[in-house]
Amino acid sequence: MLEGSGIPCGPVNDMKQVFSDPQVIHNKMVIDIIHSTAGNLRLTGPAVKYSNSINEARLPPPGFAEHTDVILSNILSYKSLNKKNINLMVWLH
């Protein structure tokens, strides 16, 4: 539909297609990371690579709401938070 109208577009791939894509393989964009609770994770690495810099994923993705308390208290300055309030906010989200 979009291809014939001159609008730039491309396919939307599922993860199996992403990991088997020749360009992804050629650019070494597939990384394996060990997560503390999920085990071995196969992820896509950074999409942009610069010739004179190191751009790599060094840590696994955070768990659900893993950093909520840090963000709310340290970054957004919510001082009167306790674990019950945070869990309620996560649940409501």
TrEMBL record:
Top-level lineage group: Eukaryota
Annotated Gene Ontology cellular component terms: mitochondrion
GO molecular function: succinate-hydroxymethylglutarate CoA-transferase activity
Pfam family name, one: CoA_transf_3
Keyword rRNA-binding attached: no
Keywords: Transferase
Protein family: Belongs to the CoA-transferase III family.
Record-linked PANTHER family: SUCCINATE--HYDROXYMETHYLGLUTARATE COA-TRANSFERASE
Name by which UniProt lists this protein: Succinate--hydroxymethylglutarate CoA-transferase
Organism of provenance: Caerostris extrusa (Bark spider)
